[in-house]
Amino acid sequence: MLLVDDHAVVRKGIRALLAEIDDIEVVGEAGDGREGVAQAQVASPDVILMDLVMPVMGGIEAIQRIVANQPTARILVLTSFAADDKVFPAIKAGALGYLLKDSEPADLVEAIRQVYRGHPSLDPTIARKVLQEIRHPPERPPTPDPLTEREMEVLRLVAKGMTNPEIAGQLTVTEATIRSHVSHILDKLHLANRVQAALYALQEGLATPETD
Q1: Among 50, 107, 122, 209, who pairs with 127 as Cys (CB 3.0-4.6 Å)?
Q2: Which residues contact 169 (CB under 8 A, 6 or more apart)?
Q3: What contacts 190, CB < 8 A, 6 or more positions away?
Q4: CATH number belonging to domain 2-134
């Protein structure tokens, strides 16, 4: 795991927390977005924990550059900012999770594990913003390369929060087949990750938000 935050005390605190967790290892640190991009290329971490407001290069630009170089990068935003001008650009840039710094340590550990598994992980405050955005969706032009019937089926299951193995089990196909379908869906819709795919499905009325 790579830590990207301009506050040394924050990085030290997170390192101390994660040192107690057997299945998470910190492989590097960076004090700004530019260093984060460089470290991500060198270390190829499984998960990148990214602050947003930093000197030299902010987190959103860093996410964009990392995803451009490493499309499969799993990035979890950890920030103090919940404003729309931070949340939606970060998700659009390719962040798979978004957590606020006032979260409980256990929530951070669980979010890291979720993102590592390729699952979206959103702070409840951010999830509410996303749902509000879904209720007032922007107009979208139809994709010039329509999804197949099976891709639409996979997209609906992604929007329900199901993992690739779970989808494969439900559709009685291999996990590799589902990975291929998800890749084609993202390519056709010009989306960066499963979070954006789920939002697209919800905004287009292809699925409904899951509620407990």
Answers
A1: 122
A2: none
A3: 143
A4: 3.40.50.2300
Q: Where are the domains of the chain?
A: 2-134, 139-203
In the 8-state DSSP scheme, what is residue 193? Answer: S
Q: Which residue has the higher pLDDT, 212 or 39?
A: 39
One-letter identity of residue 148: T
Class (C level, CATH) for 139-203: mainly alpha
Q: How far apart are the first and last CA of the chain?
A: 31
Cα dihedral sign for 194, 127, 116, 174? negative
The angle that helices 194-203 and 149-159 make with each other, rounded to 10 degrees, is 100
pLDDT digits (tens, 9 = 90+) for 25-65: 999 999 999 999 999 999 999 999 999 999 999 999 999 99
Strands (E), the chain: 2-4, 28-30, 48-50, 75-79, 97-100, 121-122
Beta partners for 61? none
Q: Report whether pLDDT(211) > 50.
A: no
Torsion of CA 82, 131, 71, 80, to 10 degrees: 10
Report, as an integer, the average pLDDT of 141-162: 81
Q: What is the pTM assigned to this prediction?
A: 0.69
CA distance 176 to 168: 9
User: Which of 32, 117, 39 has its CA nearest to residue 76?
Assistant: 117
In the prediction, which pLDDT does 106 show? Answer: 94
